[in-house]
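quick q for whoever's on today - can somebody do inverse folding on this one?? i tried earlier but teh output was garbage lol. C-alpha cells:
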C-alpha cells in the first residue's frame, strides 16, 4: 500500500461509527470509531446520531456501493465473537495484524487482561496512535503495544519480537481486511510466521476475497473498481474450496469459513435488518497445529 494512511481503513471506521449510532438494533458498540474519522466522514457520523438521518445515510451508501457497509458490519461482529471465544479459551495475547482503525483493544470485555499487539503499516499506525492518545486514557491502553511493519518488505516475526511479543504463547491473531491487498508470497510468509511464532491451539481469524472475483468469474459490482480508484486495489484472494488444504500445508486447521452474507444472516436478519452483505467477502478461522 502507498505511504499514506489507508482510505479504506477510514471507510470501515465510518461504517462502524454508523452502526454504533443506530442504537437499539446495532450489533456492536464502537464508540472510538468516530474519533478515527477525518472532517467530512466525522460530520456524517455525528449527523447519524439522529436515527432517521443515520438510516438514510446507510441506505444511500448501500445504493451507491452495494455490499461494503453491511459486509464490514457483519464481519466486525463475527470477529468480535470469535476473539471473545479465544480469550475465554485461554489466549494470553492478541495480535491485531493490519489493525487499521480497529478498536477491539479498548472495547472488548476482558481484553485488557492480556497483552495486545497492533501491527500495521507505519503510515496508518502513526495516525491511529495520535488519535488514540487523545481519546483513550493512559491506564486504559497500557496493555496495548504498537508494532509498525510493512508486510510487503519487512519480516513480521522480527518486528513483533522487537516489541515484546511472546513467542509460543497461546495467541489469537486477527488479520482483518488485509490479505486482499497483499501478494501471494507476502500472505504465505505471514501465515508461516504466525504458525512458527504462536503456540499449538492458538487461533487465527482472517478475512479474504474469493479468488474468482479477481479472475472475473464472479461479478462483485462496483466495489473492486472503487478501491482500485482509491489506490488500494485488490491483489490477492483465496479459493474457498482450497483454503483448508492451503492452511494445512502451513500448520493450521480450518475451523470456520463463512461469507459476510452468512454472517449478516446470523446477526442482522434476526433484528429485521435485510441488508445485502457480500457472498464473496469471507471470514475464516483456523487453529494452529
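ok took a stab at it. sequence:
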Amino acid at each position: 500500500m502507498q505511504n499514506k494512511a489507508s482510505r479504506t481503513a477510514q471507510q470501515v471506521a465510518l461504517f462502524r461509527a454508523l452502526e454504533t449510532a443506530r442504537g437499539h438494533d446495532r450489533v456492536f458498540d464502537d464508540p472510538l470509531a468516530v474519533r478515527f474519522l477525518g472532517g467530512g466522514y466525522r460530520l456524517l457520523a455525528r449527523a447519524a446520531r439522529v436515527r432517521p438521518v443515520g438510516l438514510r445515510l446507510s441506505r444511500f451508501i448501500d445504493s451507491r456501493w452495494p455490499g461494503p457497509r453491511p459486509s464490514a458490519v457483519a464481519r466486525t461482529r463475527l470477529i468480535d465473537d470469535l476473539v471473545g471465544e479465544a480469550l475465554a479459551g485461554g489466549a494470553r495475547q492478541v495480535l491485531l495484524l493490519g489493525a487499521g482503525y480497529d478498536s477491539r483493544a479498548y472495547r472488548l470485555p476482558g481484553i485488557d487482561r492480556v497483552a495486545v499487539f497492533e501491527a500495521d503499516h507505519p503510515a496508518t499506525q502513526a495516525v491511529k496512535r495520535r488519535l488514540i492518545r487523545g481519546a483513550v486514557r493512559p491506564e486504559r491502553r497500557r496493555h496495548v503495544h504498537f508494532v509498525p511493519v510493512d508486510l510487503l518488505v519487512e519480516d513480521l516475526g522480527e518486528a513483533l519480537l522487537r516489541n515484546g511479543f511472546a513467542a509460543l504463547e497461546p495467541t489469537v491473531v486477527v488479520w482483518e481486511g488485509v490479505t486482499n491487498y497483499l501478494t501471494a508470497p507476502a500472505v504465505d510468509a505471514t501465515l508461516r510466521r504466525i504458525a512458527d511464532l504462536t503456540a499449538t491451539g492458538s487461533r487465527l481469524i482472517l478475512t479474504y476475497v474469493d479468488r474468482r472475483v479477481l479472475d472475473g468469474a464472479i461479478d462483485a459490482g462496483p466495489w473492486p473498481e472503487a478501491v482500485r480508484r482509491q489506490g488500494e486495489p485488490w491483489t490477492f484472494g483465496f479459493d474457498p474450496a482450497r483454503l483448508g488444504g492451503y492452511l494445512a500445508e502451513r500448520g493450521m486447521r480450518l475451523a470456520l469459513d463463512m461469507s459476510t452474507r452468512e454472517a449478516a444472516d446470523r446477526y442482522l436478519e434476526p433484528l429485521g435488518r435485510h441488508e445485502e452483505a457480500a457472498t464473496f467477502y469471507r471470514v475464516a478461522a483456523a487453529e494452529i497445529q
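fwiw The longest strand covers residues 252-259. also The chain has a mean pLDDT of 95. so keep that in mind when u check it
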